[in-house]
């Protein structure tokens, strides 16, 4: 047997660059050194640049007076408020359009996704056309379309499109009646909460009873009736303590009621329609991922069609659907930052736009804005991990 | 016993179960509920298609040079016609447009060559496309060499800029994405956590804040005597943003390769980079192509955001043209044109990715 000329004698350690653990250690030390050196370089440059521009760092600017108005605010805000307050106004506006967008996109997306699988050829093709049209056009373009080409070309307040005597749509936005709560209204939300708690308890009890005795209770229908019926009942019992303030045309504009600004409408439409096309595809692929054998087996057990869907297909499909669905929700919330292009006062538009330009505190403002989005992403992905662990298929 | 009766002649299937009638019955009028749905669908189709066709084709005006040539009853495609070269090349000087045309022609023929599976010499074409082509395009587009007049980047725009941003962002993001994905799967804790933080950071923030950061904060990060072109700043932002998404696609591809492959390679005494470069990545990249095409589509759509930091991509230049006082009131035409251009690109890419998925799927069927 020939011995390789440079073979190592037995018992001698390999040189350190051949030792995997040592090599890893050296490599990682180099990485840390490189990152630290890079940070030093950047921080040094930033300090030089800031001092030459006369900008002081720090978050002190947040308590200065902002001095600019914001067209839509969910909390009290005036131009005398502070920059810190603009942050919260923007954040709430982002969450508002994000939340409503998530709801609308989910509803439209599920309807379109299920229609895509319809045995009706026409409906399936219409749904496919919807999906292929809206998901292949940039969102910003869709926002512009709704804002500049649709809502900006509406008639003026005097010639508004009226829907009944309560809803008016014109170039300045959508006017809705506003509910005014009278005394005694407080009971209704309370009963609503009680009804929800009672229905959760009912569902749990019904499930236990079914497992123990096999007797089924239409718990979902009962809780549905409970949640919607009980508050309605209380409302009528207390004599309907709501009055509606109708928008009225006075001079050149409407007074009273709720005004939905056109920027919000455009952003909301575009976000919902765009995201719904992605959700529809997720729903379709989720349902198709459930093998046909599952449906056939359930039918062989002579389960009726609605129970096949409710007990066999949907619970399994949801497991496939929900992870990509949440990432679409995240995309929607991140995409709501495009508001800045049409001037909807969201976080990016108000805080990373106007506030940044007025104060020049680029680093602090961008860092705070990014932190908000990162926090939302992190919370959602934590929820996702929890959910995945909960519904994961327990395999043998 | 012998049957000597002749068989009854085969009769054709009832006319209700073959041909168009049967198709209509099974697909559109299958029961009362389906019939109602079909009627609703037909009504929606009627509401959508008739006014659209009337607006876009029947009542539309196609020829002319000014807004007076439009009757305003339908679409005024004259506007698009008059602005077409701006929409494609931006403010690129018209005497130099031939340079952009050469780049366009080379770009599309290279893409076509790489995309059609039958054509040979893929490897050499790819190397040419990745190394030689960018140099040629830069020289042609920017100028300054071989007596070509310089065209500063703020004059670039339109479809040309959109394609440039998307392609450069993509090509730049791919190697960074591969490194990040390998790092995320690494056994070294510091490398791994660094990559995880990097990827999750970029994936967690909206692109628009990244672009703001690139345009507002990047100048602060660099020495004050160093100024970076606005286009380059946008490209840096896009590339970093895209590389995080790319890393996740690549990680998905890497996870799909069975661990036995790497173990077998290690058993043959291959080093880490040989294992990755010769065994894992070639297999994984092949499976990743549909995912990469999909991220490219979203990047292509996302390039529209650069108009917010003041670059004139296809949407940006359309938006700017709509503000021209000679052509006020044609926003619908402008948006429809831009939407159509984006749609054609994105739709054909998504079809191509579906085709690849079907084609690549065969090898991994069990």
UniProtKB/TrEMBL annotation, chain A:
How does this protein sit in the membrane? Multi-pass membrane protein
Organism name: Vreelandella lutescens
> Where is it localised?
Cell inner membrane; Cell membrane
Q: What is its main location?
A: membrane
The answer on whether this UniProt entry bears the keyword Protein transport reads: no
- Transmembrane parts of this sequence: 24-43, 55-75, 87-114, 126-149, 184-206, 218-244, 264-283, 365-387
Alphabetically sorted, this entry's keywords are:
Amino-acid transport, Cell membrane, Membrane, Transmembrane, Transmembrane helix, Transport
Pinpoint the ABC transmembrane type-1 domain residues.
91-384
Per its UniProt record, what CDD domains does this chain match? Answer: TM_PBP2 (cd06261)
Cite the PANTHER family for this sequence: AMINO-ACID ABC TRANSPORTER PERMEASE PROTEIN YHDX-RELATED, MEMBRANE COMPONENT OF AMINO ACID ABC TRANSPORTER
Q: Which family does it belong to?
A: Belongs to the binding-protein-dependent transport system permease family. HisMQ subfamily.
**What is this protein called in UniProt?**
Amino acid ABC transporter permease
Automatic annotation (TrEMBL), chain B:
The record's listing under Pfam families reads: BPD_transp_1
- According to its UniProt record, where is this protein located? Cell inner membrane; Cell membrane
Q: Where is the ABC transmembrane type-1 domain?
A: 159-353
* Membrane topology term: Multi-pass membrane protein
Where is this protein chiefly located?
A: membrane
List the PROSITE patterns hit by this protein, alphabetically. Answer: ABC_TM1
Q: Quote the InterPro entries the UniProt record gives.
A: AA_ABC_transptr_permease_3TM, ArtM/GltK/GlnP/TcyL/YhdX-like, MetI-like, MetI-like_sf
Its recorded name reads Amino acid ABC transporter permease
Q: Which organism is it from?
A: Vreelandella lutescens
């Amino acid at each position: 047997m020939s011995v390789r000329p440079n073979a190592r004698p037995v018992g001698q350690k390999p040189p350190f660059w051949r030792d995997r653990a040592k090599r890893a250690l050296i490599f990682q030390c180099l990485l840390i050194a490189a990152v630290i050196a890079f940070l030093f370089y950047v921080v040094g440059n930033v300090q030089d640049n800031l001092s030459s521009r006369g900008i002081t760092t720090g978050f002190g600017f947040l308590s200065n007076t902002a001095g600019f108005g914001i067209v839509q605010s969910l909390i009290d805000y005036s131009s005398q408020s502070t920059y810190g307050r603009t942050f919260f106004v923007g954040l709430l506006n982002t969450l508002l359009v994000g939340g409503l967008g998530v709801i609308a996109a989910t509803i439209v997306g599920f309807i379109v996704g299920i229609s895509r699988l319809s045995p009706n050829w026409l409906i399936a093709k219409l749904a496919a056309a919807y999906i292929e049209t809206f998901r292949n056009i940039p969102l910003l373009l869709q926002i512009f379309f709704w804002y500049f080409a649709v809502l900006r070309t509406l008639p003026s307040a005097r010639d508004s499109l009226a829907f009944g005597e309560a809803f008016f749509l014109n170039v300045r936005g959508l006017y809705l009646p506003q509910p005014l709560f009278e005394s005694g209204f407080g009971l209704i939300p309370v009963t609503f909460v009680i009804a929800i708690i009672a229905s959760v308890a009912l569902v749990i009890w019904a499930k236990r009873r079914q497992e123990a005795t096999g007797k089924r209770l239409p718990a979902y229908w009962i809780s549905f009736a409970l949640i919607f019926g009980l508050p309605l009942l209380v409302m009528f019992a207390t004599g309907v303590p709501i009055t509606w303030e109708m928008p009225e045309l006075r001079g050149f504009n409407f007074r009273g009621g709720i005004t939905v600004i056109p920027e919000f409408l455009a952003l909301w439409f575009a976000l919902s329609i765009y995201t719904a096309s992605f959700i529809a595809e997720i729903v379709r692929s989720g349902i198709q991922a459930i093998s046909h054998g599952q449906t056939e087996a359930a039918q062989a057990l002579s389960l009726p069609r609605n129970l096949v869907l409710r007990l066999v297909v949907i619970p399994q499909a949801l497991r496939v659907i929900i992870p990509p669905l949440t990432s679409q929700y995240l995309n929607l919330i991140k995409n709501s930052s495009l508001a800045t292009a049409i001037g909807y006062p969201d976080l990016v538009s108000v805080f990373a736009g106007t506030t940044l330009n007025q104060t020049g505190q680029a680093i602090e403002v961008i860092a705070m804005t990014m932190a908000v989005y990162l926090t939302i992403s992190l919370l959602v992905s934590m929820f996702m991990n929890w959910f995945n662990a909960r519904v994961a298929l327990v395999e043998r | 016993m012998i049957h000597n009766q002749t068989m009854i002649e085969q009769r054709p299937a009832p006319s209700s179960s073959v041909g168009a009638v049967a198709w209509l019955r099974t697909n559109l009028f299958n029961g009362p509920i389906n019939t109602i749905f079909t009627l609703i669908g037909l009504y929606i189709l009627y509401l959508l298609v008739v006014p659209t066709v009337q607006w876009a084709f029947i009542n539309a005006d196609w020829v002319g040079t000014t807004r007076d040539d439009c009757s305003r009853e339908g679409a005024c495609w004259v506007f698009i016609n008059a602005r077409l070269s701006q929409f494609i090349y931006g403010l690129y000087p018209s005497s130099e447009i031939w340079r952009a045309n050469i780049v366009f022609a080379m770009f599309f023929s290279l893409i076509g060559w790489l995309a059609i599976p039958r054509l040979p010499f893929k490897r050499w074409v790819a190397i040419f496309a990745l190394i030689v082509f960018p140099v040629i395009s830069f020289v042609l587009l920017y100028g300054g060499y071989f007596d070509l007049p310089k065209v500063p980047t703020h004059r670039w725009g339109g479809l040309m800029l959109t394609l440039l941003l998307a392609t450069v962002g993509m090509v730049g993001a791919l190697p960074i994405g591969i490194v990040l994905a390998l790092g995320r799967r690494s056994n070294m804790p510091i490398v791994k956590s660094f990559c995880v933080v990097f990827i999750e950071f970029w994936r967690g923030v909206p692109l628009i804040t990244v672009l703001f950061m690139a345009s507002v904060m990047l100048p602060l990060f660099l020495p004050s005597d160093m100024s970076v072109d606005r286009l380059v700043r946008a490209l840096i932002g896009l590339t970093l943003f895209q590389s995080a998404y790319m890393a996740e696609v690549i990680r998905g591809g890497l996870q799909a390769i069975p661990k036995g492959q790497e173990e077998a390679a290690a058993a043959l005494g291959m080093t880490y980079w040989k294992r990755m470069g010769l065994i894992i990545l070639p297999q994984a990249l092949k499976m990743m192509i549909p995912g990469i095409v999909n991220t490219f589509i979203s990047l292509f759509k996302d390039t529209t955001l650069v108009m917010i930091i003041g670059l004139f991509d296809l949407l940006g230049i359309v938006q700017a043209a709509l503000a021209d006082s000679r052509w006020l009131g044609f926003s619908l035409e402008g948006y429809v044109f831009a939407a159509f251009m984006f749609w054609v690109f994105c739709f054909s890419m998504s079809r191509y990715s579906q085709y690849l998925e079907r084609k690549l799927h065969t090898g991994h069927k069990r």
